[in-house]
Every structure is written in structure tokens, then in C-alpha cells.
Amino acid sequence: MYSRAHKIKKWLFLSVFIIVLGYGINQCFMNVNAAQTGIVTTTGGSLRVRSTPGGEPIGTVAKGQTVTIIEEKDGWLKIEFGDSTGYVSADYVEIVKEDNAYKEELLAAGFPESYCAPLMKLHENYPHWEFVAWDTGLDWEEVIEAESAVGKNTVSGTSISSYKSISKGAYNLSTNTWISFDSGGWVSASEEIIAYYMDSRNFLDPYYIFQFMDQTYDEKKQTEEGLKTVVNNSFLNSKEYRQILMDAAEESGVSPYVLASMIMVEQGSQGSGKSISGTQPGYKGYYNYYNIGAYATKTMTAVQRGLWYAKGGSIGATSYNRPWNTRKKAVVGGAIYYGKNYVEKGQTTLYLKKFNVQGSEKYSHQYMTNVQAAAAEAFQVAKAYNKITDGKITFRIPIYKNMPEEMIERPKGTGDPVNYLKSLKIENYDYAPVFSRYEQKYSLIVESKIKEVKISAEAYTNKAVISGDTGKISLNKGMNKAEIVVTAENGVSRTYTIYIYRGNSEDADFENPEDDLKDPEGTNTPTPKPTETKKPTATPKPTSTPKPAAATQKTGDVNGDGTVTVMDLLKVRKAILGMSQLTEEEQKSADANGNGKVDVLDLLRIQKSILGIE
Q: What is the pLDDT of residues 7-29, one digit of tens each?
């Protein structure tokens, strides 16, 4: 029989235990439920993530990216960052009000998960706006490849190196200079910056979203008063110009706000463009406000070619009010040209005007080469709508097949851009086609008895770094894939792929090699033997740390980092709420009570483990 003192001690212990447990559970739910979604709104391209509030930078998150907020304290937000946490300034993150009903509407309308947070934020501030998920039916990688053709998209020659293409015909390797595509010093845009501007998720804010708005003229919504807002502080802000633009809208069927924005992008906000000076030698008194037909030839600069068109070309053409020998004829005539040749052909948004991903002329018939033009024009148009309109506005937002789960980040690397291989060899074998630094895919067949090959590669420049499958590579039976990655000094990578088939040549399918890699009986990917590789000089993008094998992962350690922390709680909480899915191994670790399912009871057990009261 227990003594009175023992009973009191036991009672006190249980009381304290219950209090601590209750406090711990409450704290668990308080912390977990406090997790919110935020959108990075920094004025720059990215926001620094720090190890502690005000501490050392450990990485960045891109503008427009969504982040999960764990807690807020003294102007700093603790966020999930990779498999760990970090801190960002609260001044540059907007909290998204959770609206599950509206989110379900967006998902049902065809928007992928990654579109929902910014659209929910817009809906919160602009409930009259309507967002339409426009399924282009096109594959994302194919679209980017098509739009990356040399000269199709351009950037200023003064841009940082990661904005500029080094493809064949875009960059002179012998002189390390970019090839200009007109007299203004514009050069071919890189695949990375093209992907950034084509990813509509990067522009779901109150200004840039207007590149997805219909451009047609609506006299009830587009007024001279609204036009004043668009042209404020520009050379177009005069009674004469505003009236000309309203006349142009009526005759062309194109929004006057769009027309004004186009002109300011082409000629500058102060009208400094040479195409509207009226003083160009050989073309005095001629104007081309929209730079129609303005591209460089062997005998003419872009400005001369545009004014030659304005004059009527070599045959004195009179279509579209030509010759454009008065300012009004040039503004109105150019608007009619644009209305008939673009808007009426289905290029009904600023985005489609720049990136034609519809109709029978895909990837061609694009109004301008400047990759930033649609976003720049949208910013001008938004000035009017965001201040004077409370009515319904519809935005058709393009969606592509197989888009990356996360939005494309704006490239920001500087330095040497060359990420080519100088040589690529497979010891004792000749692969096809013959090596070329511009060719990135190769194939090879080896006999069934060959269990490994040795691959060696050399970068074109010593400023680039090679990583990936070099050295001795073990081969599985069937199709294998080896990838050699070359990273330039500016951080931009190029991947060379070798498909290696081990077996009978008649069984090799190099037209669809990825299909052969999906072997249910094995992983048909080469296993490289450990080799020493030089560390990159460029800072790599943070990647997830490989998770330990299931055998060493203990109960509650859901993220596999070796310890049970609040990060594991957050993963379980998200899974319970349907915000994310756990892998098979993560589910095993999350099932703390071993009943074969993951629920709130497991959440409580993990919380107790963290508090040390198991």
C-alpha cells in the first residue's frame, strides 16, 4: 500500500504532466495553425533568406514565390526553406488570406496549385476580376525551345550575361562577343530569361497581370479620362495626342490604353525615339509610332526601314493610311495595322502579341522581339485600370503542359557565359552523332557483356565547371542515361546527355529513350563510381538534401534529417489538411502510433516526443 507522501508525489507528477502535456499540445496546434502562406513582394528580383533575424544570408526566394510562414517576430518572418528554416524581412512578404472555397474554384477551373496563392491574393483585393485558365495544349519545354530560336527574342546588349544567349549564331566564341540583331545593340535572349517572361506565374500581381487582359476597344470602359492616367508624365499627355489616340481606338478596335502603352515602350515615355522625330535624313516628315516594319537590313538601319515602310515602301503603298506624313495618320494608321494583323487574328492579349502560342502561325508573327515588352506595356495599361475601374475585368492566363512545379526565377548571374564542352569521349567507343559543342544529345550501343564505360569531358573554358556522370559508369541492362553538366561562371548550366543501350541493337529505341528508362524491374540509369570533381565557382541553387534510408529513419523524423523537430510537425499537419502528400517512407515515419494511417493522434505523439514527455 502506497504511503500518503507517495500518493501526493504521484498526484503532483501527474498534475504537472497533464499541465505540460496540455500546454505542449496547445503550443503544437498554436504553432502549426499559425503557419500561413505569403507571397514575396520585394522590389528586386529576389529576397534574401537569413540564418537568423538580420543574420548571414543562406539563400534567396524569388519575387512572386510563395513561402510557408512558421512565425513572425520583430519584423522578421521564419519560413520553411528547403528542408530547414530561414528568416526574411516581413516588409517584403504579403500574407495570403486562406480562402479554401475560392481555391477549389481555381483548381476546378484548371489552374495548377502553384497559381492559386497569387490569384487568391488578387481576388481578395479585386473581387470583381475574373481569371480564366487558358490551356494552350502546348508542352512547356517545346514552347521554350521554339521561342529560343536565335533572334526571335532579344534583350539589350548591356544586359547581364545570363540574360543573353550563347547559342550558335548568337555569340562569337572566338571574340567572346554577342552578335547584334539591329542597330540598337539588341542581342538574342537566353533560354533562361525567355522562360522567366513566358511563365505567367511571375506576373500575377495588380500591374503585370494586364498582359493577359483582352486588348479590344470598349467605349464604355475606356475613356479619355482613363487615358490621362496611362499617359501621365509622358509626351502623349496633351489634349491633341489623347484625342488622336481615342480616334485611333475607334477606327482600329484596339484599346487606347494599349495603343498608348505600345507607343511609350517603342518611343520612350518622353518621345525620344528617332522614328517619330520627323527629321531623319531621307525621311523628313515621316513618322512610325509603333515601329512597324522597323528592323535592320544590309542596307538600312531599323529606324530607316521603319520610316521606309511609313513612306509606303518602294511602291508607294497606301494601306493603313500611308504615307504616314502626319502624326495623326501615323498613330491612327499604325493602330489599324495592329488591329487587323494581330488582334483580329487571335493575338488578343499583350502576352499573345509578344509570344504567339495560338493559331496557325505559332512562334512567328510576333509583334516585337524585346522579350520584356509585354510586361512593360502591361505596367502602363494597369495605371488606368487600377485607379478608375471597379467593373469586371477578365484575364486569360496561359497554362502549358508539364510546367515546372515552381515558377521560373529570373536569372541573375554575371561573368563568363560559356558553358560548352570542348570534348566528350567514351573510352574505346564511338557514339553518334559526331561530337559538336552545340549538340547536346548522343547515343551509343554496347554488348550485353559490357558492364561499365568510362566517360571523360573537357569544358570549353577553364572558367566553367563540369559535374555529373564522368569517370567509370556502371550500366544496367537496357537503356541507360549519362548526363554531363557544364556550369558557366555566371551560373547558367548546359546538360549533355548520352543514352547508352546495353543489349541487342535491334531492341534499342533512341527515338523514345526516356520511355525505355521507365523500367518497372530496375532503374536503368547509370550508377557512377565516386569521382573527385572540382567545386563550382558559381553559387548553386539550394537543393534538397538526400533523405536517409528508411531503415535508419526513426518514428516522427518525417523529413529524414535525423531529429524530430517542429518541421516534422508541419509536414504531418500539411498532409492531414491535404496541403501536401507524404512519400511512402515519410508516411511510415509519420504513423507514430502504428495504426496504418496518419492523423491528428500521430501529430500529438510527435509533439510529445519533441517535448520529451513520451
A: 444 444 444 334 334 434 444 43
The answer to whether the peptide bond before residue 57 is cis (omega within 30 degrees of 0) is no
Burial (0-12, 13-18, 19+ Cβ within 10 Å), 281: exposed
Among the listed residues 97, 95, 92, the one whose alpha carbon sits nearest the alpha carbon of residue 127: 97
For the chain, domains (ranges, CATH) are 421-528 (2.60.40), 550-611 (1.10.1330.10)
Count CB-CB contacts under 10 A for residue 363.
17
Please report, for the chain, how many H helices and E strands are present, in that order: 16, 21
Long-range contacts of 596-603 (CB under 8 A, 24+ apart): 598/572, 600/576, 602/572, 603/28, 603/32, 603/569, 603/572, 603/573, 603/576
By CB atoms closer than 10 A (0-12, 13-18, 19+), residue 587 is middle
Euclidean distance between the first and final Cα of the chain, in Å?
27
Q: How far apart are CA 493 and CA 498, in angstroms?
A: 16
Q: Sort 160 into a burial class: Cβ within 10 Å, 0-12 / 13-18 / 19+.
A: middle
Residue 344 amino acid letter: E
Residues belonging to the chain:
614
From residue 20, alpha-carbon distances to 30, 315, 456 in Å are 15, 90, 61
Angstrom distance (rounded) from CA 573 to CA 114: 19
Residue with cell 533560354: 191
Q: What is this structure's pTM?
A: 0.72
Q: Round to whole Å and give the CA distance between 565 and 589.
A: 13
CB 344, CB 215: distance < 8 Å = no
Q: What is the pLDDT of residues 493-545, one digit of tens each?
A: 999 999 999 999 888 889 889 888 865 444 445 555 444 444 333 333 443 33
Report cis status (omega within 30 of 0) of the bond before 323. yes
Taking only the tens place, the pLDDT of each residue in 52-86 is 998 898 888 887 788 888 888 888 999 888 778 89
CA separation for the pair 307, 322 (Å, rounded): 11
Q: Given phi > 0 = left and psi -120 to 50 = alpha, else beta, which region is 422?
A: alpha
Is residue 378 helix, strand or coil?
Answer: helix
**Grid coordinates in use for 52?**
537568423
Q: Which H helix or E strand runs over 71?
A: strand 66-73
CA distance 449 to 503: 8
Gap between the Cα atoms of 301 and 291, Å rounded: 12
Q: Cell numbers at residue 389, please? A: 475601374
Task: Show the cell assigned to 518.
Answer: 521507365
Q: Residue 597 is placed in which grid cell?
A: 494511417
Strand, helix or coil at 40? strand
Residue where the block lists cell 534574401: 48
Are 414 and 162 in contact by the 8 Å Cβ rule? The answer is yes
CA dist 544 to 38, 81, 273, 541, 547, Å? 21, 10, 48, 10, 9
Cβ atoms of residues 588 and 550 within 8 Å: yes
The full DSSP string for 149-208 is STTTSEEETTS-GGGB--STTTEETTTTEEPBSSTT-EEEBPHHHHHHHH-GGGG-STTG
| DSSP code, position 501 | E
Q: Give the angle subtended at the CA of 153 by the CAs of 64 and 113, to the nearest 5°.
A: 30
